[in-house]
Amino acid sequence: MRDDDVPADPSRPSWSSRRGTILTVALIVGISPFATDMYIPALPAIARDLGASTAQVQLSLTAFLVSFAVGQIVIGPISDGTGRRRILLGGTAVFALASLACAIAPDATTLVVARVAQGLGGAAGSVAARAMVGDTTTGVVRSRLFATLAAINAVGPVVAPLVGGVVLSVSSWRATFVVLAVLGVALTAAAAARLPETLVDPEPGAGSLSASLRRMGALLAMPRFRWYLVTGCAATIGFFSYIATSSFVFQEQYGFGEGLYTLVFASNASCMIASTLVFRRLVGRIAENRLFTIGLVTCTTGSALVLVGAVSGIGPALIWPALALVTAGWGWVIPGSITLTQALGHRSPGTAAALAGGLQFGLGGAATPLAGALGGTATVMGGLMLGFIAAGLVVQLLASSRRGAGAGARTGTGGGTGTGGA
């Protein structure tokens, strides 16, 4: 066994080889697609039932996204001082209770408030679970585990709308939140049974606000961490342009039905699942930094083809496979970004997870109205994707050309990034 294939600290429990545990962690980390995609088809019905405007009901989606992002940034550093298990269990329990509150909400205001609580609960569980991976693994094992989590999470955006559609076909929109509440209870029970505390001997006072801010400052003071953070945020904004706009492009601009668009989305997600599994096989043989760069190049190339398809009039015949190329590249960008930031922040994995996950998700979610405001066309979607993802690639190439980033790439070969940079 390689030195970098053992747990980061022999005194900490290792559960990275248990499939049930990995699935539990993956579902907790990837709770967001279930909380958003399941109920989106019911937004018009919710507006009618609650006597609310479309904007008021859409605010419930924004409320979740913002609280999920902010919650990670706030709660992640705290978990580095107080421990993971209590925060994770509390987060999944709050998620379950808030989901139930959404299900019985008598008006739009109550729904929005409950969605804020739901987002905070989901954020607590997600950031603590990701930090647990950083606590218990290092090197190649950590990289492969994050790739496995990414592959499982890629199934979420495909499964969640299907589950939501089935629920809505037999019941009302309130039932979708009941399903989310049941999921929250199940994840709380599974986590209580499978996930022990992974942060051993936290420093006294390490959970205070000042200590949390110091840890955040220490990470942001690291040039390589900043470069990876900027790259990940820029690329995520570009990818979210696809998530937010593709349904309008294919259904309204190109006349696809809901079923055919679902096939488009599912086929693209399948490419991402496959590529993350390839990433998992290659990591350890090729530096994570290089895999991350290749993923960004692939995404940039696919985005350029999307724009060409839109501007030239070729349309879906080129845009569909081009988006598949983008999502395939994203299957390397996500685990690469997570692995590299967690490796540099291995002494404060909760803070690293908070900054990377919270900022990327928050900025990506905040930018989702941009494409719609600019017209929501295929040209706008392709332009935004290419602009932001290419910007992320440029930052990554500049960072990699610097001596520090180059050393990190060499260290990253074989998964050794976990010992450098902090």
What's this model, at a glance?
This protein is mainly alpha-helical and 422 residues long.
Oligomer: single chain
Principal-axis shape: globular
Mean pLDDT: 82
Q: Note the beta-strand portion.
A: under 5%
The major pleated sheet works out as: none
Helical percentage: over 70%
* CA radius of gyration: 21 Å
Q: Could you tell me the number of beta strands? A: 0
Query: Which stretches are poorly predicted, pLDDT < 50 over at least 5 residues?
Result: 1-11, 403-422
Helix and strand run = HHHHHHHHHHHHHHHHHH
Termini separation comes to: 25 Å
Helical/strand content category: mainly alpha
| Tally of helical segments | 18
Explain this structure to me?
This protein is mainly α and 422 residues long. Helices cover 80% and strands 0% of the residues. The protein has helices at 19-29, 31-37, 43-50, 54-82, 85-103, 108-136, 139-154, 156-170, 173-194, 209-220, 223-253, 258-282, 288-312, 316-344, 349-366, 368-373, 378-401, 403-412. Helix 5 runs antiparallel to helix 6 (108-136) and helix 14 packs antiparallel against helix 15. The longest helix has 31 residues, at 223-253. The protein is globular and about 60 Å long.
Q: Which characteristics define this entry?
A:
single chain; 422 residues; mainly alpha; 18 helices; disordered N terminus; disordered C terminus
